[in-house]
Amino acid sequence: MEQYEPERLSPVQLAAMRRSLRSGRASLTRRSLLRASAGGALAVGGLGALTGCGIPAAGRTQGGTSAQDHSATEKTLNFSNWTEYIDLDDSGKHHPTLETFHKRTGISVKYTEDINDNNEFFAKIKPQLAAGQDTGRDLIVLTDWLAARVIRLGWVQKLDPSNLPHAYTNLSPQFRNPDWDPGRAYSYPWQGIPTIVAYNKKALDGIEVKSVSDLLDNPKLKGRVSFLSEMRDTMGMTLLDMGKDPAKFTDDDFDAAIARLQKAVDKGQIRRFTGNDYTSDLTKGDIAACVAWAGDIVQLKNDSPDVDFVIPDSGYMTSTDNLLVPNKARHKTNAERLIDFYYEPQQAAELAAYINYATPVEGVKPYLAKIDQDAANNPLIVPDKAMQARSHSFRALSQKEETAYEEKFAKLTGA
Amino acid sequence: MATVTEAEAPPLAPRPAPKPPKKRGRLVPYWLLLPGLLWLVVFFALPMIYQASTSVQTGSLEEGYKVTWHFATYWDSLAEYWPQFLRSVSYAAAATVLCLLLGYPLAYLIAFRAGRWRNLIMILVIAPFFTSFLIRTLAWKTILADSGPVVHTLNTLGVLDVTDWLGWTAGDRVLATPLAVVCGLTYNFLPFMILPLYTSLERIDGRLHEAAGDLYARPWTTFRKVTFPLSMPGVVSGTLLTFIPAAGDYVNAELLGSTDTRMIGNVIQTQFLRILDYPTAAALSFILMAAILLMVTVYIRRSGTEDLV
Fold first, then answer.
1. A50 touches chain B (CB under 8 A)
2. Dist CA A121 CA A146 (whole Å)
3. DSSP-derived secondary structure letter, B176
4. Is there a contact between B259 and A51 if contact means CB atoms under 8 Å apart?
5. With CB atoms 3.0 to 4.6 Å apart as the test, which of A53, A219, B33, B228 could cross-link to B53 if both were Cys?
6. Which of the two residues, B22 and B177, has the higher pLDDT score?
7. Residues of B with CB below 8 A from A280's CB?
8. B150 in reach of chain A (CB within 8 A)
9. Running DSSP on this structure, what letter comes out for residue A330?
10. DSSP of A188-248, one letter per residue?
11. Would the CB atoms of A55 and B50 count as touching at under 8 Å?
């Protein structure tokens, strides 16, 4: 055995050796040295393994963004969307608009409802996109802020305007120039999502709710008010209520809005911050009034007459869910043809009649009126000029801001 | 095949010891271990290493994450989120105690008194597993609805005044309070308590009870001196199976709770998915794991039982 070559020993072995010289109890035995060596080897190996697995920068994909476009030869399209976000016939099996698209173009759409939550879906597709691989999806639908993030990260492809004549002409002016995708180079809205104030008439029992301030301040509503866990919707509505513009607020404005909400949380005014699950609480009356998504409320109103909504005088937020083509998608042209197809007013009307969100397509009203007169007259589905004027959107955030704001908002919601 | 040749190779020095059994046979247990080991490596060891690495990285989504041995993440996240840790442990402990109080009599009944109803009751215990965890938790929102009969009764009896004073509920409602979260945890993990309790109770030889009776032990003494000590393995594994997942649970706090009931699982979820602070999320997970490991070790030592079930 090597007797005295301290420089060849690991720190752990050296320590064991020094111990052995000092006290009898831990004197150097073959066993303890072996154990120390094994421990040292494990530690070194472990450290190596740990250092080995950093996460590469999520910047521009190496090796180009586009894969070879197989649209001409493969008449298919993999379309990932949110659940219950497309028209469905009475049998519950067919999507009429997709079938029309198939008949017209010969492209068969593999429609998958695998998006439930922006954050979760991002976590799901992140590994492939960060590594510059095909996600197996040609078309995905993401809410504004996440669409902005994947554009910022360079994970989606620029669309070819020549494939999008209808989309270019019929896109509603209010959605034409978001600051995160000017001129819609990468994305087109699937649906608009107005965020409004909703209430249950029976549960309110005569209490008047007209604004976010009413939700935050009326002591009679203590513990019966909910806000959305989507940071931009809740903060946007609060900023509007405080007279700020969500499209150009400052850090101080944001902090002031957080403080205002925090006060309401502290005194027990706000019951919860919710995802879509506020709907059952609202119909039951456990929640008397809340910040809500218009699409949900239009549907709830059909089922329960007590539910209604109000648009605050300070205005309301509209976000959109956007169609995007991820990097390395195999069927980009097919995807663009589908986007363009849904920007024909006739098709947009079919869709709007079924899913009750705000349509981003101009000229839908006459077509929708033929299918469903009420829907055509509902400003939440077909926003008129006056409605559009009161709609606001949340400004794009830098990555630093996004992290800081999400952290502050998470604190507010309890973690 | 190398093993066979090796076994047949002549020994270096003649030894008087009896010939060892064929190597081939001795290796069989290791071959049988292989699938399990592989499973452990792929689904436990590798993710653990990956998470351990993540917890000492710094960076951002855009710049990438690099291992910088930033151990401060651990202290920072502990300093920031200790209330949620404490809350998780106390909610899980409360749910475990409730599960034991509810589960023990039931397991006892099934094991000794149920007779021909035994199978039916067992099925009733397991039946909730046939539906999704989420659906079962959501059902509690209906059960505990503000205007529902349960809350109405509790209000009439004045129970909610007491729990409100204790800080378990808020005003005249149960939903979105600590009590609702603990109720949800108790309900969701009750079968994990009952099943091990039942298996260990069922194994007890009925003649021991008769013997205790013959020795003039009253029923309570019999329970205290015979039944309960013999069921200890079931108690220990039941409490562990309840406490460990309950401490890491976030669904109940998410659906039945409010801002002041968020548990450490919610924090980890938020950090990982929403804020994208992967190092903090990983560090929190490790702290949780270490804390649970420590508590479980102390508990097992204390309860003086090594074999679980």
1. yes
2. 10
3. T
4. no
5. A53
6. B177
7. 138, 141
8. no
9. S
10. EEEEEEEEEEEEEHHHHTT----SHHHHHH-GGGTT-EEEES-HHHHHHHHHHHTT--TTS
11. no
Q: Does A413 sit within 8 Å of B64, measured CB to CB?
A: no
Q: How far apart are CA B191 and CA B253, in angstroms?
A: 19
Write out the two tokens for B276.
Answer: 């994208």
Predicted complex ipTM: 0.83
Give mean pLDDT, residues A133-160: 95
d(CA A394, CA A248): 8
| Model confidence at A78: pLDDT above 50 | yes
Taking only the tens place, the pLDDT of each residue in A41-69 is 555 555 566 665 666 665 554 446 677 88
Closest by CA position to A75, among listed A331, A324, A341, A323: A331
Which one-letter amino acid corresponds to residue A147?
A
For residues A374-403, b (16+ Cβ closer than 10 Å) or e, as one string? ebbebebbbbeeebbebbbbbbbbeeeebb
Q: How confident is the model at residue B6 (pLDDT cuts 50, 70, 90)?
A: very low
Q: Which residue has the higher pLDDT, A349 or A36?
A: A349
Question: How far is Cα B238 from Cα B100, in angstroms, rounded to an integer?
Answer: 8
pLDDT band, very low/low/confident/very high, at B307 (cuts 50, 70, 90): low
Show the CA angle centred on residue B88, arms to residues A406 and B60, nearest 5°. Answer: 30
10 Å Cβ neighbour count for B283? 28
| List of residues 6+ apart from A388 with CB closer than 8 A | A172, A173, A174
Kind plus residue range of the DSSP H or E element containing B77: helix B72-108
Test the B interface: residue of A227, A271, A397 with most B CBs within 10 Å: A271
Rounded-to-integer distance, Cα B11 and Cα B162, Å:
80
Angle subtended at Cα B118 by Cα B117 and Cα B124, rounded to the nearest 5 degrees: 90
Give me the residue label for tokens 């554009």: A151
- What is the reported pTM? 0.83
CA quadruple A78, A81, A83, A86: dihedral sign = negative
Residue recorded with tokens 């869709």 = A351
**Minimum distance, in Å, between the CA of residue A409 and any CA atom of chain B:** 10
Q: What is the Cα–Cα distance from A408 to A231, expressed in whole angstroms?
A: 10
Closest CA to A322 of A65, A157, A81: A81
Q: Per residue in A4-25, pLDDT tens?
A: 444 555 555 555 545 444 443 3
A286 shares contact with chain B (CB less than 8 Å): yes
Q: Regarding beta strands A307-310 and A139-143, do their DSSP bridges make them parallel or antiparallel, or are they unpaired?
A: unpaired
- Ramachandran angles phi, psi of A171, nearest 5°: -65, 130
Q: Dihedrals φ, ψ of A309, to 5°?
A: -135, 165
The CA-based dihedral angle spanning residues A348, A350, A355, A357, taken in that order and rounded to the nearest 10 degrees: 30
Rounded to an integer, what distance in angstroms lies between the CA atom of residue A392 and that of residue A239? 11
Confidence class for position B1, pLDDT limits 50, 70, 90: very low
